[in-house]
Each structure stands twice: as structure tokens, then as C-alpha cells.
Amino acid sequence: MGGRAAAAAGFRLPAERSPFVGRRAELARLRGLLAESRLVTLVGPGGVGKTRLALRVADELRRSFPDGVTLADLTAVRDPALAAAQVAAAFDVRDSTGRWLPASLADVLGERRVLLVLDNCEHLRDACAVLLDALIPACPGLSVLATSRTPLDLPGEALCAVPPLAVGAGSEAVELLVQRARAAAPGLVLTPEDDGTLAELCRRLDGIPLAIELAAVRLRTLTPAELLDRLDDRFGLLRRPGSAGPDRHRTLRATVEWSADLLGERERLLWARAAVFAGGFDLAAATAVCAGDGLPADDLLDAIGNLVDASLVTVVRDGAGSRFGMLETVRAFGRELLAASGQAEVVRRRHREWVTRLVADAAAEFLGPGQVAAFGRLAAVHAELTGAVEHCLRTPGEEAAGLAVVADAWLYWAARGHLGEGRRRLDLLLRAVPAPCAERARGLLVAGYLALVATDPETAVPLLEEAARDAQALDVPAVGALATQYLGQAALFRGDLPAADRLLRAAAARHAAVGTAADAFCWADVGVVALLAGDLGSADAAFDRSLATAADPWTRSHALWGQGLVRLAGGDPAEATRLEEQALRLMREVDDRSGVALCVTALGWTAAARGDAETAARLAGAAEGVWRSVPARQPAPLTTMDGHWTGAARRALGAQRWSARHAEGSALERAAAVALALGEEPAAGTPAPPGAGPLTRRQREVADLVAQGLTDREIAARLVISPRTAESHVEQILTRLGFRSRAQIAAWTATQRPSGSHRDHAASPV
Fold first, then answer.
1. What pTM value is reported for the model?
2. Which residue numbers delimit the HTH luxR-type domain (predicted)?
């Protein structure tokens, strides 16, 4: 069975920024469709309110999806190859193994009951169809609520056409107009005499929510009648049919054009230039990219404020300050303004230069104490990084600059789960920059490194060997030192310990000669090689040498983990536990999920060595769950050590007790697994171990239905699963609890229910 999706245990829907208006019929229809189909697509023109409607119904159905409801917004994703990564990120699943990402995501979701809101699919229609065609059959508990201007055309897809709001006196459209107008102008006074005019306004706007919201802000300065007069002047063209697109699309376009015409020149310039951002931006970013050439930096804040007042720019405030954003329709029109201005290439180059500086500044901290913060800064602008690289790929003369940006972000691609994206970008850019140069040498190096992270040494070695040759020819010693280090890692992957030791020590010497900070991780790898070779003295010395100079938490955690294993092998499980706990705290800080799994595994071994077999069994299960959530497997070189310590604990407990304790650990979320390993109380909001102990949530549901006297076929019908799956769940419950009959399951279930409580697991899923 697949592992629990880490993020799916929480709720990831954005909070509503304004009251929801109307749509009662559509909400009821969507609830009904989701009860019958696992893929429901809301279709309709831009601005009609598909996203808002999907989020509202998803929020209403939270309790029907106990493993979570989450949003994957595809608005800023331009490359179809990145659609799966965006969905994986919504479930907190990272591309860290190099596998086909939909398969990894399916493994993690397993049978979890989750609802995915997949927003803005139309520009990635084929990619979304491929992704969902892989996920839906493999994940029986997954339901999808998609929004798109066109259907996805997948088997089993149910369509819900989202019409404009009803218009006329007392209609939902008028309610929306009045509500938004009063929010924009708190002192606004409307009388019954305005009712007819408001209804006509909504009719002329075709009941499209975005058009109504853009118009409502003008009631700050215009009366309803004056507003209606302006619509007469502006929208006369729309009465004539044409082939440029659906009427509602052209109505929306005219509404945005009208908003543009009401702006001053500096606001129009800012709108056009800020549209180059794929996502949000702050004042510093706007200054770097948008200021100048008719838009003085001193005027920028006022111009942003005027766009906010015009409801064309949104503001989000958090602890880091204010960030600004645009609706996609507004951004798309801004890009048309930018293209018409003749400044598109200049602004896009400024954007790329801004991204280049951000990445270079972050990269300077990758091997220092600010490592985690640097990863976070890049994660916050990931959409901009992607946009800048795409600009370099399609703009002659910018390819080498793009290669430098992707190479500078080398550790970020691996640390934050964008491994596949990093490798693909490098492949395209290396083809675009075929001649030897410093940028290409660095690109080859990083491509080889990422191939190693993906456990693909066959691909990595030729790339690294070419990087080493180019580094020598171009006199780039830092690249040569890293290429040698990664070739040593490749030898370790192949099990050639002597070659790995020779190459890694040579790389460490080169790092020392150049004065780079990478030698600390290199020495940690030397320690791993010595540990696997059984040379505990050399391993300990190498880990000590790494820790003496390591400044970043990732390197320190790696060295502490290895040193803990040296102490364990040397017969000091107490000191080994202390070191592994230190390593785990750092792994948690970095959010190195494979590293977390390694440390939880090692702490299970130290528990076994201390004679605490029950903790060892729980931690073995917890580690297995963390590996599933990556998803990845324990490295093969550790198999012998794992067999020794877990075997000892298993023999001490006996098969039945081992299985029960192991299942308890396996059911934990990653944060709870770390808390168990460190002896901490789970943090607030961290899911606690399931109340039914060794059973998963789905198995507890089945156990409750068994207690109600239902047969396997009746359970299958109630939970919308196959009878064979229901039978399998019952068999697993009997095995996990060590029971022989359904009567024992029923008796056990009664003891698990808190006094006075009642859980109705027989309720409909939606």
C-alpha cells in the first residue's frame, strides 16, 4: 500500500478574501457530481468564477476527505513538463529520486482519501490529462476538481459548465456588484432608485464576476448612472458578432481595456512591465525590473497603490512584508501592453538579470550557515526562476546566461525537490551552448551532480569527465575539484571503494588548494567510504575533519550521521544515539527527507543496540513510512547493518509484537516520526498516531464497519471499493492485530472508541 501523503494530512486551501456570493445551484450540482465521479471539471470562460467556485465546494467537503484537501494552481506554469511537479508540490512530494514523477506521487498517495483542486488547466491540457490518467487509476482514494476553459477529455470525467451569474433586479450579479462596491467605497450610498441601473450594469457586463468586480471599484468616483453611460461608450463594439472569440471573452477583454484607459501613463507602464513576473513580486523586485524609462523609481510606490485601488493588483501581507500579484487575466492583458510598447525584450532581460542576482546571492550561502534561508528565498521566487530560464532558452544570445543561472542553483534543485526540472533545463541549455566555455563547464558539472542525486551514475560519469576536461582546459580549478569529488561519489555508487577513496581524497586536496568550502562534504564522503570498508578509525578521523570546517547544516548532518554509525559499530550506542539525534535535528532543519529517513533508521538501530526492542520496532516502521513519503528506498550498502540490528530487535520481541509496534511507527506522518525518534512531544498541528494504534485510517474505517456486522461486499459498497479490496483490508487487520475472527475485531474496536463518542464512517464520501 502507498504511503501517506505528508501534506494531505493538512488542509492547503487559501483563505477567502471576500464573502462568497450566490452559486447555490452550481454548488449543489458539484457536490452531486463529486459523489458520482472522481474527476469533475469546471469549464467556462476566463473570469466567470471557476476557481472561486471550486475552492468553495472543496472547503465545504473537507470532512469528506479525511486525508486532506489541497490546491495545485497551474497559472504560473508555462512548461507542460512541470505540471506534475506543481501537483506533487501541492502534496509536499518532491522530485528527489529521478523517477517518473506521477509514479512517485501515486506511490505516496496510495489509498489516501484526498481531494485535489487542479486550477487553470487549459494551457497545460495534455499534460494534465496524462498526469490524471496516471494518478486516478492508481490512487483509489483520490478525487480531482479541475478548472479549465476546455474539458480534459478523460474517461470518467464529469463536466460542470459554469455560467455567468444571473442578472436582473435582485440577482446574484447585482448582489456581487453591490457587495464589492461597498467594500471598495465604504461610504457608498445606494438607494432603491439605483436598482434598475445596477441591474442594467450587470446585464451589460454579461454577469461575469471579474468584469463586475473591476467595474465595482469605479463606484468610488462615479454614480451608477455615470458608470452605465461609460459602458455605453466603451462596449458598443461588443454588440457586433465576430470570430475573435466567445462574446463573454470579448466582454471581459473590453472591461480590462476600459480599466487600462482610466489609468495614467505611469500606471499603464507599471502594469505592462510587472506582467513579466510569473507570480507575485515585492517593491524591491518591481524597482529592479520595472523602474526607469518613463517610470521613475520614486513614483513606483504610488503607481502600485493606484493599481491596487483599481483592483488590478492584489496585496498579500505576511511577516516578510507586502507582496503584490495580478489575476491571470489582468497579467495576460499586461503582457499585451508590454508587447505593444516595444520594450518586451528590455524588460525580460532586466527580469533575467534580477533573477541572476538573486540566484547568485543565494548560491553564495549554499555551503554556509545561511543555507536553509537561501533555499527558502529561491523557493519563494521559483516561478520567476523558471520564467527567466525559459526566456534564455528562446532568446538568441541569452543561452549562456541561462546556463549560468541553472548551474548557480545547483544545490537548490536537489534540496527542494526540483531534480527533474533542473536536469531537463540543463540538458536543453547544454545543447544550446555546445562550445567549451566556463558556463558550459559548470553546467556539465551540475548535470553530473544531479544525475548522481537521481542515482544515475551511468549518466553522471560522462558529464563529469567532460566537465573535468573543460575545467582543466579553461583553468577553472573549482569546477575540476568538484568534478573529481562527484566522480568519487559515482565510484561509491558502483561499490568501488578503493577508487572512491582515491578520488575523494584527491578532490579534498584540490578543494583545499582552491580554498572552497566544499571540502567539508568531501571529507564526510571519505568517512562513508571508510565506514563501509570497515575502517572505523579512518572513518572517524574523516568525519572529525569534515565537522571541523563544515558551516552548513546539510554537511554537518551528513558527517554527524556517519560518526554516529561509527560509534554504533564501535560498541557505544549511547553516544551513537546522541550524534544521530543531532544529525536528525539538522536534517529536519534542512528538510532533507532522505536524510531524515537515514537518521530515523539509525536511531532504530541504536535503540536495538541499547536493548529497547519496542522503540526499535516503532522507529523501523517510522523510517519505512518516511522512505515511502520521499518516495525512495534505503540505500543498498546499509542493508547488512539494517538486517543485523532489526533482526536482533525482531527476535527479542517475537513476530507478532514486532509487527504491531512496527505498524504503529509506519502509520506516523513524517513530523510525528521525527518527534518519536527524538523523544519529543508532537508539535501543535502535527498529526498524532492514529487512535486505533497499529491500523491505518482506512483499516480503522473497515474495522468499524466489521463491528457493525457488515459483510465484505457490504463494506465494499459503503466505501466504494472492490469486494476483493475490502477482503484484503480485513485480512490485514486480522494480521496486524493478531486476531483470528471478525468477532475479535468488533470487540477490539469497541475498546478503542472514547466514551460517549460516535464516528459515522458509513457516511457518503461527499
1. 0.79
2. 688-753
